[in-house]
């Protein structure tokens, strides 16, 4: 007997988990809105900050701090604690590869993250108008800097690898997991300062898409998809080889047990929307048949 269409996994996921997908879109939209706001404030010559802080290095440091704080606030927000606060397709797909996220959840997380990246820049455009199109801002488009495409690729690869390694090492130790947001925020602040001139600082395909969609600039766009995925997959594979797959406990970036976990999770103290061992998707994620 054929399964009724609306009972299929795709529709079941949409019906039960659509708030998570909306949260992921909102989280990246807020991150992009914050990035647009602070970039205009700090780098648009018509705003006073460029005169208050004439040094580009100081302004870049302030930009990094602002984005690091933004990331911490999003991860620790009720939305972030509920959805896991990925707001990055590379993070979601890495956890899918690790067997922590169900297939349709991964599909919709990624889809809505891209929607969120575009939505955030759209809202910023509505608020700030032509300020976002000025050369000093240019919709925060991510393009290789003066060191070239190869340098941008390896910068994105390095940032993604280190970020995912830190997340996995900390989030899978119960006594350290609550500090993940602060380490992520610190890394983002450092990345924005040191690597923005090299690659534009993305490590997030949806973030790059949100800017490029409005700027119409897709220069070396492939690297902003390939490098984050390659870096995070590499970090995950090394982590599993060293620690074992059983040491990947959850896909949340904040372990608050008050919010039920939507993932294939066995983090201590988490309440689960799914049974911790239900529907193991590791074989699917690795392209092998279920035994």
Elements, N to C (H/E): HHHHHHHHHHH
Q: List the domain count as a whole number.
A: 1
Weakly predicted, low-confidence segments: 275-291
Shape: globular
Overview of the structural elements:
The C terminus is likely disordered. The protein is built from eleven helices and no strands. It has a single domain, classed as Up-down Bundle (Glycerol uptake facilitator protein), CATH 1.20.1080.10. With 291 residues, the protein is mainly α. The protein starts with 8 loop residues before the first helix and ends in a 6-residue tail after the last helix. Helices cover 62% and strands 0% of the residues.
Supply database-style keywords.
disordered C terminus, globular, mainly alpha, 291 residues
In short:
With 291 residues, the chain is mainly alpha-helical. 62% of the residues lie in helices and 0% in strands.
List the topology elements.
Elements: H1 9-43, H2 49-52, H3 56-75, H4 78-83, H5 89-97, H6 103-128, H7 149-171, H8 180-199, H9 205-215, H10 223-243, H11 282-285
Helix pairs in contact: 1-3, 1-6, 3-8, 5-6, 5-10, 6-9, 7-8, 7-10
